[in-house]
Amino acid sequence: MSAETRALAARFPRDFAWGVATSAYQIEGAAHEDGRGDSIWDEFCRRPGTIKDGSNGDRACDHYHRVDEDVALIASLHAHAYRFSIAWPRVQPLGEGAWNEKGFAFYDRLVDALLARGIAPYLTLYHWDLPQALQDKGGWVSRDTTLRFAEYAAEIGRRFGDRAASIATHNEPWVVAVLGHQAGIFAPGLRSQKAAMQVAHHLLLSHGIALDALRSQGCRAPLGIVLNQSPIHAATDSPEDMAKARLDDGLTIRWYMDALLRGQYPEDVLSFLGEDAPCVLEGDMDVIRRPLDFLGINYYTRNVSGTGAPLGPVQSGKEVTDMGWEVFPAGLTELLERLHADYRLPPIYITENGAAYANRLVDGRVADVDRIRYLRSHIAAMADALGAGVDVRGYFVWSLIDNFEWADGYSKRFGIVHVDYETQRRTLKDSAIWYRGLVGEHIGLHAPKVVGADAGG
Ligand code: FCB
To answer: How many CA atoms lie within 13 A of 372 on its CB side?
Structure first.
């Protein structure tokens, strides 16, 4: 391993957790097996034109049948931690009522296999796969769904609370609310700002109710939530673009952070929303601001905002990934320092960071130098934030394996491990080998020094 990688590893404290991340619908497959119910993503994928390559998660990476192989793969990377999600419709097919023991058996097996290899299970309750039966009753637009979620959370806490290293309630509520209910490009495909904002409120509320439910039954795992966050930069320094950027900052960052950490929604956003502001009942904000044991941040790029174009990553004129997202590591440092300055933060985990690149498997090898560069520069940017006093405790590469990238289907490859979807063969990309090396250096730096054999006498 190069001196550069060793020097990078040396910038992290002894207990820093290095992990890899996935989510249920993106990898499990077995979508109609062992009693799993339909999720909104099964239903969304059936609608023509929703998924770029017309695919779905029916088979995905067949992880459901390859769980032992995949845990061995994680172990082979020396990863300390694995972030995954539970598919709610696999363990409770209708989202209320009967539990599905076969579904739980799968996650028992996964968690026990991880623990047997010394890998900490970081569990997410909701990575977007709502049981379709609940969608049929209104989904996240309906306040009742928050109660169903809390019941589900409590059951997971009861069964896994003493084995999970942490439990996150939601993954990226902004994406669920806005891409799912306003832009309509993710399940369930609604197009209404009013619905989206009500969903955003219900997701946060369900998070708070779930924390109460988990804590009241003595769940020992640290509890938190995962947010997607990107610094928003104004397209130009015109007053109009600056104002638009400030509003977009409110809609994407402050809406969630102010609610979770201060118990209020930002005034400027509420007045912009007007009639589309959500219905908030008395007491809701107190529930939402329950103490967090940790906050997960998913970071991929910065966003640029202005009156001339919709909010989004820079698409051209800069170095971009296969998603068309600008490679902008400095944004991670900027984001973390800003959140640290503006809020009283709990411990932070970078719960996702990574890049899609189209590198091919040639003679058994994937030479993804671009991904190595991306990972190295973002890990260095995270180290800069640590140096500035931000309490970052761990980092998870998105993703362990190539997988179903939502509306992009299988056309985008985020894995540090290549998946041949015909044979389901997994092959470490060069980036996986690099990451293994980084983690190995970190472990080596903090391993107890072996004293000479003659020292003891
Ligand atoms: C995040 C999602 C994750 C994956 C990455 C690329 O928004 O949480 O499932 O799709 O983006």
So the answer is: 18
